[in-house]
Amino acid sequence: MLTEKQKIFFEKLKELYGKEVLPSFETIASEFGFKHKNSVWQYFNKLKEENLIQEQNNRFYINRELFGAVLFTSSVKAGFASVADDYIEKRVSLDESFEIDNPSTFLFTVSGDSMIDLGIFEGDKVIVKKTAAVKNGDIVVAFIDGGYTLKTYRNKQGKVWLEPANKNYPNLYPKEQLVIFGIAQGIVRKL
């Protein structure tokens, strides 16, 4: 069990360095205001003992399982209220779930209401995996005739178009150019 000082040290370490390789004891001692690197070493020993940091090839990392939001095993009903069990399943990271830190993954802010019937609203952030390989029914970010759009990719007997999810908008048929940027993997919405 950590003392209050150890908890504060760990939270500051997590805030400053995140998932990066932790710097030398000397650097941490200097940045945290310690007179000696031995103080950092003592903190690290306790954090290793509690499995909060890990050592690999003489380099230290904060345990990756400690990042992300907490996922509860019980669900939240959108209908009538029910008793919720407070069982934590694990921590979930959007970085890992959607490979956001992958160079081929991008976030776009949705503008407009052409995809509302699929639950994609203006201001949502759509997570897009860059690829040109798509199949019928994928939600894609595409460049069509001079502009980017988010729509459902449709292909029927070689005829290709982009379909909105709002009856107030027409299907988009490419006149000159259609290039698929990537496939939507998920959305993030602030309430």
Strand tally: 10
Mean pLDDT, all residues = 84
**What does the radius of gyration come to?**
24 Å
β-strand amount: 25-35%
How are the strands ordered across the major sheet? Answer: 5-6-10-7-8-9
Give the termini distance in whole angstroms.
Answer: 36 Å
Query: How many structural domains?
Result: 2
Low-pLDDT segments, ≥5 res: none
Helix content: 10-25%
What order do the SSEs take from the amino end to the carboxyl end, as H and E?
HHHEEEEHEEEEEE
CATH topology of the largest domain: Umud Fragment, subunit A
| CATH class identity of the largest domain | Mainly Beta
CATH homologous superfamily designation of the largest domain: Umud Fragment, subunit A
The largest pleated sheet is described as: 6 strands, antiparallel
Q: With helices defined by DSSP (H or I, 4 residues minimum), what is the helix count?
A: 4
Shape: elongated
Secondary-structure content class: alpha+beta
Q: Can you name the CATH architecture of the largest domain?
A: Ribbon
Tell me about this structure:
The chain is of the alpha+beta class and 191 residues long. The protein has helices spanning 4-17, 25-32, 37-49, 94-97; strands at residues 53-56, 59-62, 69-72, 88-92, 105-109, 125-130, 139-144, 147-156, 159-163, 178-188. The chain has two domains: 4-65, Orthogonal Bundle (Arc Repressor Mutant, subunit A), CATH 1.10.10.10; 105-188, Umud Fragment, subunit A (Ribbon), CATH 2.10.109.10. It has four helices and ten strands; from the N terminus they run αααββββαββββββ. Helix 2 (25-32) crosses helix 3 (37-49).
